[in-house]
Amino acid sequence: MGLKHLIVRLGLAVRLAARLEAQVTGLYADAGTRRGRADGAPRTWREAGAQLDALARSSGVESACWKIDGAENEPGAVAARYCRYGDLAIVGQHDPEAGRVPADFGAQVLLESGGPVLVVPFVGAYGEVGRRVVLAWDGSREAARALKDALPLIQKGAEVRVALVHRAREDFWKETRSGPSVTRLLASHGLTVEREPVLVDQTPQGVTALDAILNLASDVGADLVVMGARGRHGGPFPRASRRTRATLSTMTAPVLLSA
Fold first, then answer.
1. In this structure, which topology does domain 2-120 adopt according to CATH?
2. What is the Cα gyration radius of the chain?
3. How many other β-carbons are positioned within 10 Å of the β-carbon of residue 199?
4. Kind of pairing, strands 231-232 and 132-137?
5. Closest to 129 in 3D by CA, of 101, 149, 100, 145
6. Superfamily of chain region 132-253
7. Where are the domains of the chain?
8. Which of 122, 232, 239, 259 minimizes the number of CB atoms within 10 Å of its CB?
9. pLDDT by residue (tens digit) across 140-188?
10. pTM score > 0.85 for this model?
11. Checking DSSP bridges between strand 255-258 and strand 117-120, what pairing results, if any?
12. What does the alpha-carbon distance between residue 115 and residue 129 come to, in Å, rounded to a whole number?
């Protein structure tokens, strides 16, 4: 499962690079095991590098591959530092059966890399992203950052639905003709948008905003969900917020997150 999932991510990265006329760099960081490096890691590294090289050459994309040595203790933190030298990091959702990758790897890259992170589910195949998009919008700084980071990934003519998150008795999502408007911002980039109000139910039994957003993504067959992320940056123990951790664990489509 681990190598198969890795190949899915490599293919998606190469296709994105070809569409955006970019280059792609593979980054291999292995957490190892308590007794040392995990069995099969060198073979996986060689196979992944060969696969990336073959995919890139067939697509006319420039590629490179970096291997992180000595990253067994903090692979997420080390990978985040490397990802600061790229425009977009693409990581896999944590697979509970893949023992070499720590559960917080994606969250560490997200909080510490300083850039957007595209997280790919560990099940399913994803040939492209950006044709059917769900954007979670609550007017926050993080949502605005995610929207702007996602614009290059949204394809021309894409179906875009904006999930306008609000609480009871709040009506900020009812945009006026003269005031700020996320739909007009997207329209200025040539995108046609449908609005989907999402009410945050604060009762214990209520459907959360995250549930509603992911349900909407499933209903419309979204190949990209765009969300802001929050958490504690820096220091020895960076930690994603509870909602961001829930997103990473329950996502069923590729999610672009920006913090």
1. Rossmann fold (3.40.50)
2. 19
3. 16
4. unpaired
5. 149
6. HUPs (3.40.50.620)
7. 2-120, 132-253
8. 232
9. 999 999 999 999 999 999 999 999 887 765 555 566 667 788 999 999 9
10. yes
11. antiparallel
12. 18
